[in-house]
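Re-run requested by the PI after the first attempt was lost when the workstation crashed. Everything re-entered from the original request form. Ligand of interest: iron/sulfur cluster.
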Amino acid sequence: MPNPHSKVPANHEGPYYVDTDCIDCHGCREIAPRHFGFDEETGLSYVMRQPETEEERSVVNEAMEHCPTESIGKEEGEG
Ligand code: SF4
């Protein structure tokens, strides 16, 4: 389960986030390169840009579903 209490600090503010269980498998950055970036300071991925359209949300949700450590989360009631 993604943990909203251990978000990586670099996440762009908004409903989606990456937590510190990320193992930097590159998966989310391959599936949604416009939304996930690599944070050199932590060595982890982070949400670089929040999705704004249905299409973008669908790509980010796909990345979320494929994350092997379930590190990508979405805050309830937002976005
Ligand atoms: S898919 Fe998950 S584990 Fe892989 S880099 Fe993205 S957040 Fe990290």
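Saved to the shared folder this time. DSSP finds two helices and four strands in the chain.
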